[in-house]
Amino acid sequence: MHEGSELLKKPLRYLKGVGEARAALFRRLGIHVIGDVISHYPRDYEDRSRLKKLVELQDGDQCSFEGIIASGVVVSRPRRGLTVSRVSIRDDTGLINAVWFNKPYLKDQLKPGERYLFFGKVTKRRTFEVLNPVYERIDGSGPVNTCRIIPIYPSTGKLTQNVIRSVIRNALSYAGGSIEDILPGWIRERYDLADVRYSVSNIHFPESDEAFLKARERLVFEELLILQLALMTVRTAPESTESGIVFGAREEVRRFIEGLPFRLTNAQLRVLEEIEQDMESSKVMNRLVQGDVGSGKTIVAVAALVKAAKSGYQGAFMVPTEILAAQHYSSLRELLEPLGLNIALLTGSTGAKDARRILEGISTGEIDIIVGTHALIEDKVVFENLGLVITDEQHRFGVRQRAALGKKGVRPDMLVMTATPIPRTLALILYGDLDISIIDELPPGRKKVLTYAVDSSMRGRVYNFIRKQVAEGRQVYIVCPLVEESDAVEAVSASELAYQLAHKTFSDLKVGLVHGKMRPSEKDDVMKRFISGETDILVSTTVIEVGVNVPNAALMVIENAERFGLSQLHQLRGRVGRSGYQSYCILFNDSKSELARERMKVMTETTDGFVISEKDLELRGPGDFFGTRQHGIPELKIANLYKDMEVLKKAQEAAEILIRDDRLLEAEENRLLGQAVSEKFSGVMNTISMN
Ligand code: ADP
Ligand code: MG
After folding, report:
1. Comparing 247-281+296-418 with 450-606, is the CATH topology the same?
2. Residues 433-446: tens digit of each pLDDT
3. Nearest ligand, measured from the Cα of 551
């Protein structure tokens, strides 16, 4: 919806029924101006459209009816803290009693002889009775809370649904007429989309099921189109005719592969071939490698680095965490120093003296391959001839960071690795400009991680199982609950658990602890001890989630598993099952919520990352944080990327046509759309950033 119109930009207080107190409550929902409240879409609906005459009522009916207050309200107080208000209501066919609890003020509101609409559940005792019915005065503007499909809004406790509904109703009659349609006519025609005013009105107060579906489809389309256009504008730089680097060194790559202690899987070989062809062509490579956890993405990336370095270019490998950077650095050294390549590590915690030396080495070209965190993007990092940029676990990085690293070379090839398998259509939105390679095969000999969801009553047995695993020579991860938005609290809870386990439960075993608040050098030491097998049990926060590789670890226990999303649980579980040992994952879940149980069920039934990510999308609602953290796209107001896949495809098609014909969306009929995109565009750029 276009928000350029003046009325839509006025503060909420312009509306009837909104004073400072209510305006403040709305602000808490992020609603400041009239346009905001109009795009505060319902999260659900209740069908109150059935309207009956009193004579037609039956026991158990839930419906609306119209009637005149036939008697004064009688208030009684059968006990402390309870008031009961009764009134009888009639129409020309019959009579019904209405009863409300703890609403003594009704006495002053419901006046005998006045006509109202009601909605509630009807029961038949001796006479018909309706408990706590919703009621509203009949006036010119039509019913809001009865006799129709009623919207139910996301709210904070203090704003009641009735208030939100009436404010939105007022907003629509005040400013609804000034909403301009931002979709060019040909798009509306081609995709058979409803008009914007009709859609906005029907998304809030649907005239019928069909009207609602039409309205929703149009708004979903618009939202996805804007998102798609915004992403496409950020990513696709104007078609460059200048060509990229042509790499060689096929022979060196082959020798490197043959020197490995294992044979690459067919999937790895296929993907490596795709990469090599890209690198050898003069086109700039922009490729995404998707592969489930443990599918062996790293070695493919390393082979690409060999190709770059042996062709005389530098390679950069950027990863999201220091733990992962350190791990990749040490395995790269092991693999590549024998080939005479010079590897360095640069993170935020690299000491000043080392950093100076490394920066020097990067700028002279003495360093062939640099592994690091987003420290690599800093201005002071200057390459001699950067030829290949690899980002691992891309969903943690923003588009902007990827681009920033790329700018440090002259059209270097780009490779993006992600372990969050996502459905292809979705990949197209998130990585619209990338070619996609998929490693869809695990190295041979891997056994399925056996997964169990248990409640706290099993704690003793789980601890015995940990003991048994350690006795067999395996190692164990215990992941502490996720604490929303506070690394500090998370660190405390992990520390407490580690202390308790180290001093009581497992005082005879070696227990380690790693969390995000530790100094990088401490983290490093802890990880080294775990990798070397010195530590039996590693208690950690989710810092362990990304990419850590300790094949001897065969058991993962996750505390309060219900607090994690499905993709995150899958990532965590991917830390085990990295060797031939039978591995296990135990999920502690005491939550009775349906959603939590559904997630646990998915985890116990499948280990396929693609299935899990589809389920993950399905189980999320549109208002969910889909994206901001996990995939880096802004929160959607109405679209659901799983359920609206069909609309998404159409929006993608439309976006492609638009961009092809009018890249900057400057044509008169595209101007409003262009404006909406640039409003969203700044949002996208801010949200798509590191965590
Ligand atoms: P991910 O895809 O999750 O990043 P990694 O690259 O960390 O997976 O690989 C997981 C483990 O599998 C590593 O220990 C790696 O050495 C090993 N590995 C990779 N490819 C193969 C293969 N073809 N055969 C056997 N082991 C492999
Ligand atoms: Mg990895």
Report:
1. yes
2. 678 888 988 888 88
3. 1
CATH superfamily of 50-147: Nucleic acid-binding proteins (2.40.50.140)
Model pLDDT, residue 691: 24
| Strand partners of residue 451 | 585
Cα 25 to Cα 20, 32, 486: the distances in Å are 9, 10, 25
pLDDT digits (tens, 9 = 90+) for 350-391: 989 999 999 999 999 999 999 999 899 998 999 999 999 999
Residue 253 belongs to what H/E stretch?
Answer: helix 250-258
Closest CA to 234 of 399, 414, 397, 412: 399
Ligand 1 pocket, mutate which of 271, 420, 578 (most atoms under 8 A from CB): 578
Test site for ligand 1: of 334, 549, 575, 576, most ligand atoms within 8 A of the Cβ: 549
Nearest C-alpha to atom 15 of ligand 1 is from which residue?
A: 296
Measured CA to CA, the distance from residue 440 to residue 280 in angstroms comes to 24
Distance, CA 672 to ligand 2 centroid (Å)? 43
Pocket lining: 549 vs ligand 1, CB cutoff 6 Å: yes
Residue spans of beta strands (DSSP E) within 186-308: 286-291
The model's pTM:
0.64
Residue 578 CB less than 6 A away from ligand 1: yes
Give CA–CA dist 496/390, Å, rounded. Answer: 38
pLDDT over threshold 90, residue 303? yes
Q: Could you tell me what percentage of the chain is helix, strand and coil, using 3-state DSSP and rounding each to the nearest 5?
A: 45, 20, 40
Give the Cα separation of 413 and 511 in Å (integer): 43
Which value, in Å, is the radius of gyration of the alpha carbons in the chain?
A: 31
* Whole-Å CA distances, 626 to 39, 154, 479, 633, 640: 19, 16, 23, 7, 9
Ligand 1 center–CA 618 separation, angstroms? 30
Residues paired with 124 in a beta bridge:
128
For range 655-680, the mean pLDDT:
87
| In the predicted structure, residue 424 carries a pLDDT above the cut 90 | no
**What does the alpha-carbon distance between residue 621 and residue 260 come to, in Å, rounded to a whole number?**
45
Q: Where are the domains of the chain?
A: 50-147, 247-281+296-418, 450-606
What's the 315 CA to ligand 1 centre distance in angstroms? 21
CA of 552 to the centre of ligand 2 (A): 16
Average pLDDT over residues 593-611: 89
Is residue 607 within 6 Å of ligand 1 at its C-beta?
A: no
* pLDDT attached to residue 687: 38
Sole residue written with tokens 């502490």: 480
Architecture of domain 450-606: 3-Layer(aba) Sandwich (3.40)
The CATH number of 247-281+296-418 is 3.40.50.300
Phi, psi of 395 (to 5 degrees): -65, -10
